[in-house]
Model the fold of this input.
Amino acid sequence: MGFRGEKFAFDSPAEAVSAMIARLAASQPAPASERVPLNEARGRFLARPIRLDRDSPAFDHSAMDGYALRAADAGPGARLAVVGSAPAGHPWATAKTLRPEQLLDEPLLMLGAGNCFRDQVLDLCHRASQGESPQVLEGSSLETIRHMVSSGVGVTVMPSSSVDGIPADDPLLRVKPFVKPSPTRRVGLVWRSSFPRHKAIDVMRQSVLDCRLPGTRAIH
Done:
């Protein structure tokens, strides 16, 4: 095989393709780079790796996509308080509480269609606004949404247990409760009727009740 007057011998087609790609990449000039605002960077590629010098967000969190719920929160009949989240510096940051209808005034970051928590938040908005729908932007996970809020893309609603670790002086986020009566969710413990280990269920139930998590109220 020839390449710009040179000859090569390869043991397999795959090796030849790899060599060709490497030679072509080496022969091309490095693409130009420029600085652009984050909201204009869609469809672009980073010119070099960017590394944070601290954790963001600065609290314990799940690093996997998906909806995470602490096992201790899932007790039978437990009610989980729902709170709003806004970036630091947002007009809501100085408010003590929020009204559900205020969610209609901002881009609302939510999980994808079909998620139960998303449906509950939409129901809250519809009831507060007599049917008006919010401007919804989607994120793939609560973690992704939290990053989007931190960067000023919009606001979101999260379970209280997901934001308990965010300090009041966090430089990126502010967490505000809803006015009373605040919206809640009821979480139950469910198992198959044929499940034989009833004592294990009893132990799990009692362990959850003994945790006395903030933002929850047991229903007996």
The two ends are 78 Å apart (CA to CA). Residues 9 and 15 are 10 Å apart (CA to CA).
